[in-house]
Amino acid sequence: MNHSYLIGIDIGTSACKVALFDRSGCVLAAANGDYPVYYPKEGWAEQNPEEWWSAVCGAVRQVIEEASVAPEEIAGVGIDGQSWSAIAIDRNGHVLTNTPIWMDTRAQSVCDRLNEEIGAEAIFEVAGNSLQPSYTTAKILWYKENLPEVYAKTDKILQSNSFIAFKLTGAVSQDLSQGYGLHCFDMRTGKWNEAMCEKLGIPVEFLPEIVPCDHVVGTVTKKAAEECGLAEGTPVVAGGLDAACGTLGAGVINPGETQEQGGQAGGMSICLDEYKADPRLILGFHVVPGKWLLQGGTTGGGGVMRWFEREFADYERMMKKETGVSSLNQLNEIAEKIAAGSDGLVFLPYMAGERSPIWNPYAKGVFYGLDFSKTKGHMVRACMEGVALSLRHNLEVAESAGARANVLRAMGGSANSLLWTQIKADITGKKIVVPASDTATTLGAALLAGVGTGFYQDYEEAVKETVSVTRTHEPDLRVKEIYDKTYETYLELYRSLAGMMTKHE
């Protein structure tokens, strides 16, 4: 039978996405599977990996059925996932506890102690990343101190994509691009640094063998086939970080090319062919061999608009029943009527603490400049502008580290908003192109499977076959002058409020 198709699986924060692609990158069918985030205490954000698996099984079955393809026609499966999980499994592969996710900051005290004992600079020298509570490292040690019964039974620590690969194949793996979540991972060599493992107190036995992202880790087992509907024996590759797979799916494979991320989280990923680390940013290996990604990540991406819609769009949801226009599109329309700069209303998008470049788990979202003249439209536009200002902040820090982005390739749900994308172009002063696929992340995961199984000869062929540009946004430099002043206010706001954004006992 012809092996004509590829499947990409994306383990996102609010849902998994599964898409079935043909050779040209066309989506034949796509499905989502929802699951909750649990917030049991302030600063905690966790998920149940078994709920990911249930959602994946349902979405895979739906996609195969909708596309009317035989499971045997699928050449391979690629998986991407959210960063910085710490999925503890025992020797029998059972999940021992919910995993803290990338928004979780419970392990701040662990980081403070290790940065003091080992030295923040010594850790950064090996890992290329500063030790922060959102990374995997401190979460493992948090288990040791707070869940000793879980720690004692732990056989391996997995990442989100490697957990789904494990459920599909039974193989325990760790892909190269997710290594950056652990500070005993040597960012220059892509190997575990056993001396740093010992200093940090992380048993090297907990860490799976590191493999390339396009490495076939195994094939779908009979049990997994029965659960998810794939054919037994289908090859599964290790996969990689969601942002890195999205970067590949947006067509970024050469140095200097940059992906702009508009998913739940926001940020950017600049492709490098040499090691360039900055403690204010995030450095990881690209899913494409021989490349790194210098990343900026903000907690306030598309999630800001999802929050705003949930809390303040009752009227728009009601009108959707009459007009058929989605509530998010209606919010977009009222924001479009507001002038650039939102008449002085400025928003700090620190809705779950903030990652780069300020690294403050206690940072909070702020609206500054409210008065009786401000409308809901002002607030929506200020939300969009605030996320774009955080993008500019990260890009400027990257440039100071020697990594300049020229053109941004936008991906994620936010890229569907012409207004929001233009705001990002105007605030950053960068040209933004939007690739055709609305599913860049799942496409990137599928392309890994395509290269790993020989479906494509190499990444150049894979991108050439599947990625095309649908629209381009040129920055309006006159508007940028307005935004330059907004940006100064944005920076000054955080500087002024930082002293208040600290832990409250």
Task: Give a verbal description of the structure.
- With 505 residues, the chain is of the alpha+beta class.
- The chain has 16 helices and 24 strands.
- A hairpin with a 6-residue loop joins strand 18 (282-285) and strand 19 (292-298).
- Helix 1 packs across helix 5 (160-169) and helix 8 (242-249) packs across helix 14 (440-452).
- The longest helix is centred in the C-terminal third of the chain and has 25 residues, at 376-400.
- The radius of gyration is 22 Å and the shape is globular.
- The termini are far apart.
- The relative contact order is 0.13.
Task: Tell me the fraction of residues in β-strands, as a range.
Answer: 15-25%
Overall, the morphology is globular
Q: Number of helix segments? A: 16
Helical content class: 25-40%
Task: State Rg.
Answer: 22 Å
Low-pLDDT runs: none
Mean pLDDT across the residues is 96
Total beta strands: 24
What structural category characterises the helix and strand content? alpha+beta
Euclidean distance between termini CA atoms: 63 Å
Major sheet summary line = 7 strands, mixed
**Spatial strand order of the main sheet:** 18-19-17-16-22-23-24
